[in-house]
Amino acid sequence: MTPEPEQSERQHESQHQPESQRQPESQRQPESAGEPEVARHAESMVRRDDKGGFPAQQQDPPGLTSRMHPVPDHGEDTYIGHGRLEGLRALITGGDSGIGRAVAIAFAREGADVAIGYLPDEQSDAEETLGWVERAGRKGVLVPGDLVDRETCRRVVAQAVGGLGGLDILVNNAGYHWDRGGDGIEGLQPEHVERVLRTNLHAVLWLCQAASPHLGTGASIITTTSIQAYDPSPALLDYAATKAALNNLTVNLAAALGPRGIRVNAVAPGPIWTPLQPATRGTDTIETFGADTPLGRAGQPAEVAPAYVFLASPADASYVSGTVLGVTGGKATL
Ligand code: NAD
Ligand code: MG
């Protein structure tokens, strides 16, 4: 595996520190911890100001983090845990990269053990995320598999439960779209539509079904939907429809599992800089990706993860179920 330069440097520093001097990531303060909160926040907004757009680039699906320019920010240097998920066990599908990696890092620093679902081609990304979970002092488990069929969904849940000794949080985050076929209904291709529906919708049903018997009172399910559920692009007809369906499923499943004390919620991100984008879009849309939001830029995975922490926290979100939390850079989720 050849991690991206930024991350190799981070690993290098930590590897060369004596074990006795290393602090668990969950307790580590970022270098700017002494500054007032507002100053720190302003600094991070400047660092994340992507108004200039992104350099033209393309990958084949599923896409790898190390081939992105710039490499996304998953909160490696900034996320500080506060024990909100102490002792909980989470399965995050698509946990290798992008939003899933940021959620894995945040969950681990909040005290959770994490199973990471991913496609076999993404082994290097999954191992990188696993490293961050372990450096937070938590247990990490790798559960590769293509979730397009029910049997794999069941196997992935079973391996996560086996590896973690149970399950308290299911994050249905794996997702796929294809935006290179031309606008509208004429651009739809059977193999892509099939993969979009099976990955985004069928798999979520099978994962929830397989996980449900393992979830107890205080457990929760969080699904990644999208701004596309509210403000759909004609180039993503099939994808947008699956995300709207997941919003509906969230409300319905919250009603079904509420009597067991299980909360079901969703996060609807706006444009976020992750491997999914260069892997499935044309370069022309990459250069302006996120520019049409009120904040005028794409978000970073690190800016989405706190929404999942809130929804997963049995204390902070104890009465929050059946809701979809938008993290959209200002685009309406109405
Ligand atoms: P990403 O490429 O980093 O993550 C998507 C992950 O989905 C991949 O890493 C892969 O492991 C997994 N995946 C895809 N097909 C799979 C399959 N058949 N079986 C198993 N795993 C599979 O990109 P991301 O943007 O972080 O995507 C995470 C979620 O966020 C997706 O559901 C996506 O639809 C959603 N989303 C992304 C954006 C955005 O702008 N990036 C916006 C709204 C919603
Ligand atoms: Mg990936």
TrEMBL record:
Cited PANTHER family: NADPH-DEPENDENT ALDEHYDE REDUCTASE 1, CHLOROPLASTIC, NADPH-DEPENDENT ALDEHYDE REDUCTASE-LIKE PROTEIN, CHLOROPLASTIC-RELATED
Keyword Oxidoreductase: yes
Pfam families recorded: adh_short_C2 (PF13561)
Origin: domain of life: Bacteria
Lineage: Bacteria, Bacillati, Actinomycetota, Actinomycetes, Micrococcales
Record flagged with keyword Transferase: no
Membership in a protein family: Belongs to the short-chain dehydrogenases/reductases (SDR) family.
Biased amino acid composition, Low complexity: 17-32
Extent of Basic and acidic residues compositional bias: 7-16, 37-52, 70-80
Protein name: Oxidoreductase
Keywords tagged on the record: Oxidoreductase
Source organism per UniProt: Intrasporangium oryzae NRRL B-24470
GO molecular function: oxidoreductase activity, acting on CH-OH group of donors
Stretches the record annotates as Disordered: 1-80
